[in-house]
Amino acid sequence: MPRSSFKPLPIDTSKIKLPRELTELVELLAENTHNVWARQRLADGWHYGRERDDERRKHPCLVAYDELPESEKQYDRNTAIETLKVILKLGYELGFPNGDPTTGAGTAKSTVSLGDEVAKLNLSSVISLWHQHTPEEWSNSPDTYCNLGQRVLKLGEPLLAYDILTEGLKSSPTDVRLRQLLALALARSGASSRANALLMQLRHEGQRDEETLGILARTHKDMWTQAVDPVERKRQLRLACTFYSEAYETNHGYYTGINAATLGLLSGKEATARTLAQKVKDACLKELEQLPTGDSRSYWPLATLGEAALILGRWSEAEDRYAQAAEIGRGQFAELSSTRRNARLILDHLGRDRKAIEQCFNISRVGVFSGHMIDGRDRGIPRFPHELEPAVREALRVRLKTLDVGIGFASAACGGDILFLESLFDMGGELHIVLPYNEEQFVRDSVAIVPWGNWAERFRRVLSKATEVITASDQKLEEGSTSYEYANELLHGLAQIKSQQLETELVPLAVWDGREGDGPGSTASAIEHWRNVGLEIEIIDLARILRHENPLATSIDSEPKPNPKHETSTPMMAMLFADAVNFSKLDEQQIPRFLQHFLGTIADLIARSKYPPVTKNTWGDGLYFVFSNVRDAGQFSLDLCDLVSNTDWAAKGLPKELNLRIALHAGPVYACVDPVIGLPTYTGTHVSRAARMEPITPPGQVYASQAFAALAAAEHVAEFTCDYVGQTPLAKGYGTFPTYHVRATRVRGGDL
Asked: Cα dist. 444→40, 128, 437, 447, 456 in Å?
């Protein structure tokens, strides 16, 4: 039979559905398939080459599984999936370790048996495993939560780790390891105070192990770097040194030892720091002797040797050790970021140039993208005709590789967005997608707009590969441009938060024709926003590509048209909802005092505030304020929280525990005049979301939505920070959403 007529006819497994327990094995089997293939190739004399060359026996896939492009990994995954399905199709049965997976005990044991293998999974596989599980299956297995949470922390996702570990603690509330890892997740997501409180409780319970004391010391170290007041900075540095030293003296671990040495150096105790660094160096060298060359467990000994060499003033040795550690730790963004942070502290203290050490680390940059859609049928003058797709894809691939972007944030419209996401995924990158409104409507408006290009299928494919997909609003606003503008700002803010977590650069990237565009929410408006906050933008010049590919297409209407500014009836605003805790328990004599003193005090604050709301309303004990931006809303909410928490309400004849719950959200709302009361107000679904956050906020705290936190990051707000709390169920069954705790970054009365 001629080769050209060969048609593969695999066994039809389309009706076979893998049980969850087998689905969890797919990534492990895929990696094993690759390793078996690679071993045979190497045995046959093949070796790695950037391009396949059969004569010279070179192959680009002769690398570790984690280093394969996602497209190649998918071949191995498909082989694993189809193999498992064929076994079931042919009537065979697959047994599970330690019993029947349908029983509680069997499932728990089966899952735990996978624990050691979790350390090999990439982020998308871990997320798939997490989304497929049910809490009942893992309820008797805190080790499973620990293994999964620890892996996610290594992959640089403290927010997801927080959710995993919190669920584990619901069934195992006293588990020490779960509480330690939860504290680490909180610390890495910026919630130093909450992590500190959790660790102090463990210490009071008698936990003096290196993990507890080490993370406790780390929280004080973080608060030292965050503090503005010199006295507070000195106090936090002293506490960090104290707890690191206690941990080292008690446990003799090099992790706490090197931190004690580093902070001792920064405290001016150079001789003590160098003596300790030498002891730590000796311990790390002994540990390395016990490990095979290239073993993943050698990362921390090597990184610690680099840090010790810096303290000892041995610069070349430090570079060598850091380079070795970075090679072992490729892709482990959290570890690399932590190591680099300490190196920077030492180099800055000693007045040394960072450049040589920085080159040792390879923490991928975070990219945020905006770009034009493929031209629709009704576009008269070409901007992005489908013929340009190959050239734009190649330009994106080259730019992403040159810039070393490994994590990307984008929407998913046809054209630039999907090409960006596909290119990044093929390079092994991590995808984060924000849709402006519901998927079905978005596909109609921005994806399936032309019959060619198979954009709808490609849209579904990139969404399935994404680490997260966020829908900014449930429905498209009447002024659709506001929906896109809101999504653009969320993308920027979420990317900014990610880059801050990893302490890496944020790179805005656009496929743009250089024209002013189609108004708010367009590529031009995203670029304008990035420029307004001082970002340096990477632009792939679509007009230049068009001229190169089709010179005649730009001969007409070559002059850009100005983009007319227009007012909108759906502005993006920040909203504050608050209510007084236990207001319903006030007696009749206390109601007038509440009005006079409690609400009167809040009215006085509004009158003298630098950040007053543009609209305000009350009903009973409830407050509803609207602000023109998140900076004003955040600062006012913290002033309000301080005022209420620090007032002696008992002296005014009110319950001493009287306090507020305060919730913040931001999004597009409808500006109107209330026909009943005749006053200006703002309404819409985003107002409802803010209202439903308030009941779940702890008294005396300010909570915010993910959107509020993202817009604060996008606007480079420095006056306060938003620390992730977790996926919190909102009131009245409204759903579960990421929630943040808002705290001041300046020194305030009552802090610390």
From this structure: 48, 28, 11, 6, 9
737 vs 111, higher pLDDT: 737
Q: What is the pLDDT of residues 558-617, one digit of tens each?
A: 444 545 455 556 789 999 999 998 888 888 988 999 999 999 999 999 999 999 999 999
Taken in order 432, 406, 50, 415, the sign of the CA dihedral is positive
What SS3 class is residue 375? coil
Count of domains forming the chain = 4
* Closest by Cα among 289, 268, 270, 267 to 278: 270
| CB burial of residue 214 (10 Å; 0-12, 13-18, 19+) | buried
Domain termination residue (choose one: 329, 358, 387): 358
How many whole angstroms from its chain centre is CA 56? 43
- Report the DSSP beta bridge partners of residue 572: 668
Report the b/e string of 79-115 with b at 16+ CB within 10 A: bbbeebbeebeeeeeeebeeeebeeeebbbbbbbebb
**DSSP states of 55-75:** TTTEETT-S-GGGS-HHHHHH
Looking at 293-297, 307-311, 316-320, which range is the least confident one?
A: 293-297
Q: Are residues 166 and 209 in the same domain?
A: yes
Say which range, 206-210, 477-481, 541-545, 583-587, has the weakest mean pLDDT.
477-481
Indicate the average pLDDT of the chain: 85
Q: Check: pTM over 0.90? Answer yes or no.
A: no
Q: What's the CATH number where 650 sits?
A: 3.30.70.1230
- Asked whether residue 19 carries a pLDDT value surpassing 60, the answer given is yes
Q: Report in angstroms the alpha-carbon separations of 17 from 23, 81, 88, 95, 189.
A: 9, 10, 9, 16, 38
Range of the domain at 69: 3-89
Q: In a 3-state reduction of DSSP, which class is residue 349?
A: helix
**Amino acid type, 436:** P
Whether residue 277 contacts residue 293, with contact meaning beta carbons closer than 8 Å, is answered with: no
Distance CA 469, CA 487 (A): 12
Under DSSP, is residue 662 helix (H, G, I), strand (E, B) or coil? strand
Do the Cβ atoms of 86 and 97 come closer than 8 Å?
A: no
Q: How far is CA 176 from CA 38, 166, 471, in A?
A: 41, 13, 36
Residue 151 belongs to a domain: no
Tokens in use for 250? Answer: 């008690």
CA 487 to chain centre: 16
Residue 688 CA to its chain's centroid (Å): 25
Q: Which of 89, 120, 143 is the last residue of a domain?
A: 89
DSSP H or E segment with residue 299 = helix 299-311
Token pair recorded at residue 546: 């068009």
Spatial contact of 641 and 700, defined as CB atoms under 8 Å apart: yes
The 10s digit of each residue's pLDDT in 422-455 is 999 999 899 999 999 999 999 999 999 998 889 9
- Determine how many CB atoms are found less than 10 A away from the CB of residue 204: 8
Helix (H) or strand (E) holding 405: strand 405-410
* Nearest-angstrom CA–CA distance, 381 and 518: 14
Better-predicted residue by pLDDT, 378 or 267:
267
Structure-block tokens of residue 124? 């998308």
